[in-house]
Design a protein that fits this description.
heterodimer; A: 618 residues; alpha+beta; seven-stranded mixed sheet; five-stranded antiparallel sheet; 23 helices; 23 strands; B: 374 residues; three-stranded antiparallel sheet; globular
Chain lengths: 618, 374
């Protein structure tokens, strides 16, 4: 029997309940009316006067963005006060007269300001409209002295980001910019609202939410002129966290100066833990320019420049490694057992494959060479032979083990992976089969091979630290203002090389010979008291021509000149620094890049020499 | 063939009340958006006129069929609502920190609105079928408890504390209405009080914070605390007769947040004073009592319980919204039914009021046709 619905008994129960419900409703409405009577009659005069003089405002309390320090505690990025000029539309009597006076005092454009003011008046007449950011001290003084007869004008002090050393480490530190609509909507920037500036690149972006701090605010009562008369309640802002980098400011500075006048990149890192000591990229830019809000032209000049000053070449520049790649091929040959250290190949200056002839850089050849000499003197023919024996896929296997062909995982935006070609890759990418000739040029780091400077530093570190690929890191710590650590760096070993220790030793010895041996190509990195090991690389930008056409470097147009590489580690027995230097179109690695590496090693290991730093003053 | 008794029994009083409310609401909206008429205010006003037209069409549409047919649709509607809530959690777009909206092409709606109706329907069906001769005890109530708890938890997860509590209140009112043994109510409250601290200490700090600021707006001086402060100034400064139409300074100077949505009542109280505010409340009171009368005169259990659920929806909206803007209750984003600006809440309310009219119109059917229906 389905229905009890129409059963009078069960319906009657409900109609009795309706009476109780009606009573509850009457009580509830009675309470609401009593409340209204209380607000509007009992306390009416209080609220009426409050509404007449309603000058309760919400004020933002902007948090201080965290500071950024170098590894020795030197301040790299801080905040300085900036003075911003505001006008409250509702409180201006004669806006034209006011704007003309302001224009005389602070150099604002009266027409543009009038536009801003009328826009603001339409929406929120009591909300201050910002007419000019970061006015100079002189302008500030002039306005302050006339404050009495400038009704509606107010000056607000805001902390402004300041990059103490201008261009220093700008690619790594990054820059700030106004948050975009899209970023606001994404929900990832919970502490920000429209008009805020956030980190757009580099460390500023990587640690945005930590650096940002938390916005506070205050409910304040202000007088007719907008001056604060009473604080009603307040929520303090929480400062952003400070960040300590692994960068050594002195070394960074030197690296950047060494690149002056050239395009290129330098990475120096601690081979034993992956801490990046310096990361330079030239040309560069001054992140301070971005903060004031730059004009259209400056932005175009920077962003569209053919020199790509915004690009961090250390992470995003992909270059053929040239002879530096021989380290990889040598290790592959030894571990795979296709050669022994004693095996010799004869170098006549050329190597023939079918109808093609491949040259050694040394025109009349090296004669009989073993692996040791081949590395020290960078004999191309030896490596043509070795490469042919290995085949491209074996080479690629070891290159990938050594961290090439994939991002190092440093955690900064846009890091490139470089390129390590394989047969399968070529088929997929180009739809044609791999040619043996391409293996030959791959063996000396040409053909399709591309690497980034940071990958080279990681690779050198692994060879000298006993075979560990460390993830390069740039952040040592993140701390709250009271010193409590939020993040402490610890070395992250990504991979352990599967190469027998004697082979690594053998290559290490050879690389020491590159710098210190009688015919070593890297002799310009030689230091008296420090044992430096390294490898030169001269990466062709265009295919090497015929012998007869081989020209003097100086005669070749700049953009066709070879890239110069030098990678180094020192001291050999107790490695403390690994350096990768790349000079775009610099010519020979031994002459253009090796001296730079030498200078950096010397500075870093001989710390006493580092000069006194002047304090960071804006 | 239209039954002539349907027209004779049409609930003209309810319709008249709704038309009066619509008029006051539009008048008030005109004032609330007057200061921003050049920057979108006029558009808001026009839009709301369209929404009212749509609302009245929906209202009439919901009187055309026999509401009793909904009894069969109760469970399918309920499970659809739950499914939609799950979908919105999985795919919904996050706007200002919570997932509430579902987008179907150009139309977007909040599944929690639909869930509100579905829960009322399913409870009406359950209680009309099971029991009813004597007061329910706890052991009879585990099924309705589950029916309420599932959507409640899903909406809470969005997170939309306000809507979840609203559904909880409406369903709880319905359960009380069908009569529960007083011992069961006591046991329920005691066990709630016993469990509450356990849950409280398992919450994360930020969750505790959220509940605390919800209960006491003063803990959030820049958000809800500020809004309530300004709303109280607006209402209080209205005095007995108000500042007059278009003369509300709080409104004009934008001290009131969301003046045309959640704080529409404050605008009215500022401009029309205690008199205006009480008149509006009296209209709502009359409408609610009228609704209870419909419930009382329904000769059939499903209709009575459904009707009561609908009255509860309107009642709680009025009490929560007015309680909130006068600083009596915590701040929740519950709009004032038929009065605040906003299309989806208006159309939903019109739809359920259409059902209430439906019940009112068809009460006679069960008197005379009872035998045939059996």
């Amino acid at each position: 029997m389905k229905r009890s619905n129409f059963d009078p008994v069960s319906v009657d129960v409900l109609s009795r309940q309706v009476k109780i419900a009606a009573l509850c409703v009457l009580i509830a409405f009675g309470m609401l009316i009593i409340r209204l009577w209380y607000l509007q009659i009992v306390k009416g005069s209080v609220y009426r006067s409050k509404s007449e003089y309603n000058r309760i405002r919400l004020e933002d309390v902007v948090p201080f963005r965290g500071m950024i320090y170098d590894r020795n505690g030197k301040t790299l990025v801080k905040n300085r006060p900036s003075y911003n000029l505001y006008v409250i539309p509702e409180e201006v009597q004669d806006s034209q007269a006011l704007l003309e006076r302001l224009s005389a005092l602070s150099g604002i454009d009266p027409k543009e300001a009038a536009e801003k003011l009328s826009q603001g008046a339409k929406h929120y007449p009591f909300k201050p409209v910002c007419l000019k950011r970061d006015i100079s001290r002189d302008q500030l003084a002039r306005i302050e002295t006339h404050m009495y007869d400038l009704a509606g004008v107010m000056i607000k002090v805001k902390p402004q980001r300041h990059y103490c050393y201008g261009e220093l480490a700008s690619h790594l530190l990054g820059y700030l910019g106004e948050i975009s609509e899209e970023q606001l909507r994404s929900g990832r920037y919970k502490d920000n609202k429209a008009g805020d500036v956030i980190g757009k690149t580099g460390i500023e972006r990587r640690w945005q939410s930590d650096l940002n701090g938390r916005r506070g605010g205050a409910q304040v009562e202000v007088d007719a002129a907008g001056r604060r008369i009473r604080l009603i309640s307040r929520k303090p802002a929480v400062s952003g966290y400070d960040i300590g980098l692994t960068i050594d400011k002195t070394l960074q500075d030197q690296a950047e100066r060494a690149l002056e006048g050239n395009h290129g990149a330098i990475v120096a890192m601690d081979p034993m833990n992956g801490e990046v000591l310096a990361m330079a990229s030239n040309p560069s830019y001054d992140p301070n320019v971005f903060i004031k809000g730059m004009d259209h032209l400056t932005w175009r000049r920077i962003s569209l420049s053919k020199a790509f000053p915004m690009q961090n070449r250390a992470l995003t520049g992909q270059y053929p490694p040239g002879s530096v790649f021989k380290i990889v091929v040598a290790l592959a040959g030894l571990q795979e057992g296709v050669i022994t250290p004693e095996d010799e190949f004869y170098c006549s200056g050329t190597f023939s494959l079918g109808k093609y002839r491949y040259r050694c850089w040394k025109r009349y050849g090296h004669g009989h060479v073993n692996l040791m000499r081949a590395l020290i003197e960078s004999c191309d023919v030896y490596f043509y032979n070795l490469g042919k024996k290995l085949g491209v896929d074996k080479i690629a296997f070891y290159a990938k083990q050594l961290g090439l062909g994939k991002p190092t995982g440093i955690g900064l935006e846009n890091e490139k992976s470089g390129l390590i070609p394989t047969r399968e890759w070529k088929k997929r990418r180009w739809g044609v089969s791999w040619q043996t000739g391409e293996t030959i040029s791959t063996a000396i780091g040409q053909s399709f091979v591309l690497v980034t400077p940071i990958q080279m530093a990681v690779l050198m570190s692994a060879v000298f630290n006993g075979g560990t690929i460390y993830k390069p890191q740039v952040t040592r710590w993140v701390r709250k203002a009271d010193g409590e650590a939020v993040f402490e760096m610890s070395p992250e070993a990504k991979e352990k090389l599967n190469i027998k220790p004697p082979y690594l030793e053998m290559v290490k010895e050879a690389l020491q010979g590159v710098v210190n041996g009688p015919h070593g190509t890297g002799s310009k990195a030689r230091l008296k008291n420090i044992s430096v090991a390294g490898k030169t690389g001269t990466a062709q930008v265009v295919a090497m021509g015929d012998d007869s056409k081989r020209q003097d470097e100086a005669d070749i147009p700049w953009k066709y000149r070879d890239h110069a590489w030098f990678v180094a580690v020192a001291p050999v027995g107790d490695p403390k620094i690994a350096v990768a230097v790349l000079v775009e179109h610099g010519g020979h690695g031994g002459s253009a890049a090796a001296p730079i590496a030498k200078g950096l090693i010397e500075t870093y290991l001989d710390k006493g020499k580092a000069g006194e730093e002047k304090a960071c003053n804006p | 063939m239209i039954d002539r008794r349907l027209i004779k029994n049409f609930d003209w009083v309810l319709l008249l009340l709704l038309l009066i409310l619509a008029g006051i609401s539009l008048l008030n909206l005109y004032s609330a958006t007057y200061a921003i008429r050049d920057v979108g205010g006029a558009k808001i006003f026009m839009k709301q006129i369209y929404w009212f037209l749509i609302g009245f069409a929906v209202l009439l549409a919901f009187t055309t069929f026999n509401y009793y047919k909904l009894e069969r649709l109760a469970y399918p509607a309920y499970f659809t609502a739950v499914a939609l809530l799950v979908v919105v959690l999985l795919t919904g777009k996050i706007t200002s920190g919570s997932q509430r909206w579902l987008h179907l092409g150009s139309v977007s709606f909040q599944p929690s609105e639909f869930a509100k109706i579905a829960v009322v329907l399913v409870l009406a069906r359950f209680f009309s079928e099971k029991g009813g001769y004597q007061a329910y005890r706890l052991r009879d109530l585990w099924q309705p408890f589950l029916m309420i708890a599932v959507p409640f938890a899903l909406i809470l997860k969005e997170p939309d504390l306000g809507s979840a509590l609203f559904i909880g209140l409406v369903s709880f009112s319905m359960v009380l209405f069908v009569k529960v043994h007083w011992k069961s109510i006591l046991i329920f409250f005691l066990s709630c009080m016993a469990v509450a601290p356990l849950i409280w200490f398992r919450l994360k700090e930020y969750q505790q914070m959220r509940i605390l600021t919800f209960l006491s707006p003063d803990m959030d001086p820049l958000g809800s605390g500020y809004h309530i402060n300004q709303s109280k100034i607006a209402i209080g400064s209205g005095w007995l007769w108000g500042k007059g139409f278009l003369n509300g300074t709080q409104t004009r100077l934008h001290f009131l947040p969301e003046q045309h949505t959640d704080f529409a009542f404050s605008v009215l109280a500022e401009e029309w004073g205690l008199v205006g505010a009480v008149v509006l409340l009296m209209i709502y009171l009359f409408m609610i009592l009228w609704g209870l009368n419909i419930v009382k005169s329904s000769k059939e259990r499903f209709g009575a319980i459904l009707g009561f659920g609908i009255v509860a929806i309107v009642f709680w909206q009025v009490v929560i919204n007015v309680g909130m803007v006068t600083g009596l209750l915590p701040v929740v984003g519950i709009p004032l039914a038929l009065f605040s600006y906003g299309g989806s809440s208006l159309v939903t309310t019109m739809a359920v009021l259409g059902l209430l009219m439906n019940i009112s119109m068809r009460r006679f059917m069960f008197q005379e046709d009872q035998d045939r229906l059996f």
